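User: Good morning. I'm curious how zinc ion would be positioned relative to this chain. Could you predict the structure with it bound?
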Amino acid sequence: MSFLNSTLAGGLNPAEQLYQGTDFSSLNWVEKQWAAWYIWIGNPIIATGLMSFLLHEIVYFGRCIPWIIIDAVPYFRKWKLQPGKVPTPQEQWECTKQVLFSHFTIELPAIWLFHPLAETFGMSTWQVPFPSWKAMAPQIFFFFFFEDLFHFLAHQALHTGILYKHIHKLHHKYSAPFGLAAEYAHPAEVFILGTGTLLGPILYAAFGGDLHIVTVYVWIVLRLFQAIDAHSGYDFPWSLQHIIPFWSGADHHDFHHMAFTNNYSTSFRWWDWACGTDTKYREYKKKVKAAKAALKNATQDEKDAFERNLMAEVEKDGQRAEAEAEARGLLGGKAKVQ
Ligand SMILES: [Zn+2]
Ligand SMILES: [Zn+2]
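Assistant: Good morning! Here's the predicted structure, ligand included:
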């Protein structure tokens, strides 16, 4: 960190001026790199904007890589929720292009505005040291809770009339999603649902909460993992929903894509359960469980055929529900579908 101290002696850029009087020897390695980044870039707005954008891109595509590999290895097929629907490389590439389009049109400017917005609401950005894990954990839980509720409500609105037809329909292109499809959406949807991710931290800071942007970064990384894993299409015996029963996971969201209705939340199952928007899902799970018990002595082929038929039935119902949603007015007027 000697260059940090030496730069303080010469001409100071705006970032260097911020760190005057900071005792760098008391910082840990990550905190030192954080300060070095702000000093190297020289402009806090660009430093925060660039770091936010790079973090999002690296984590998003980095987290998708294991799922692309898993899709290419037949051994993992036994844990695929809709085994007959493995994405082709062509589908994955088409999806990547749309995701990049959304990232560069909506997310890039939004991320760029995040530093001024964060500063306006009193969030710490360039400051070191970071808050402790004990301070961060309850804040991150609040962001999870807030986003889940926001998404539960906004997602249901996106399932009606023109909002569905012109915005959310794109995300429902894949009835069997895969990791890369997590942010496969219309730029307006990325903006609407992205609000749920960022509004929690903004409100928390606006109401006087002591919040550092590094906590927001940890939250965004966890949220990206949640979204990509929920779209992965795989339910492993070690998946989080088998450890935390109220965690949604891929099993919950895959059904949303297959059946079109039910399961509107992101991270937790409680709102769908409390509001009765998971009844079809729970019925389906019950049927699968009962059939598995009844078909105990059947061959694997017979069991697979039964599950395929059940899925086809659910998907057909979903297509009907989709046509109804498109025909329905914004305020939920009756649909006329033949
Ligand atoms: Zn949806
Ligand atoms: Zn989805």
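The chain is about 65% helix and 0% strand. The two ends are 71 Å apart (CA to CA).
Let me know if you'd like a different ligand tried.
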